[in-house]
């Protein structure tokens, strides 16, 4: 699983450091080159895209990049304001952006279907709840195998099924 937080170097490198976008792309191309040379289908490469107010417009392009780089999947999750990181509140999607995001989700879903890219992008707006101005959870999505795709953040909070269903009260310590 490879983190990529923008469809171009300008946005991605803002979050991940200068030159990261180029390194990610070059590394994936090298892996694909060796997979072809060795006639192997593994390792499979998946993208993890952390959605915020600086990159939500990149959703359709991220699906295209996933396909172009022969990655097997892209999982999208939203930034949560309850993360204890300085400056994080400036990156959280505002209600106006959440409303505007609908068109990017629709376009990204159409592209994913056309290119046969596996993604959860279509689930981003289904069951979205807002709690005190923060995106908190995608409540209406069923999850039958929560242990299969689980994410535990550095603060012990748990998200399951790649749908950002976690909230501050769900913590490995409790």
Walkthrough of the structure:
With 174 residues, the protein is an alpha/beta fold. The chain has helices spanning 9-16, 20-37, 59-68, 95-115, and strands at 2-3, 46-51, 73-78, 118-119, 128-131, 134-138, 150-152, 158-160. Strand 2 (46-51), helix 3 (59-68) and strand 3 (73-78) form a beta-alpha-beta unit. Helix 3 (59-68) runs parallel beside helix 4. The radius of gyration is 16 Å and the shape is globular. Mean pLDDT is 77; it is low at 127-148 and 162-168.
Radius of gyration: 16 Å
Mean pLDDT equals: 77
Share of helix, binned: 25-40%
Spell the H/E element sequence. Answer: EHHEHEHEEEEE
Low-confidence stretches: 127-148, 162-168
Strand order within the widest beta sheet = 1-2-3-4
Intertermini distance: 27 Å
How does the major sheet shape up? 4 strands, parallel
How many distinct helices?
4
The percent range for strand residues is 15-25%
User: Per the principal axes of the C-alpha atoms, what is the gross shape?
Assistant: globular
Structural class: alpha/beta
How many E-type strands?
8
List strands and helices in order, with pairings.
Elements lengths: L1 E2 L5 H8 L3 H18 L8 E6 L7 H10 L4 E6 L16 H21 L2 E2 L8 E4 L2 E5 L11 E3 L5 E3 L14
Parallel strand pairs: 1-2, 2-3, 3-4
Antiparallel strand pairs: 5-6, 7-8
Helix pairs in contact: 3-4
Concise overview:
The protein is α/β, with parallel strands linked by helices and 174 residues long. The chain has helices at 9-16, 20-37, 59-68, 95-115; strands at 2-3, 46-51, 73-78, 118-119, 128-131, 134-138, 150-152, 158-160. Residues 127-148 and 162-168 have low confidence and may be disordered.
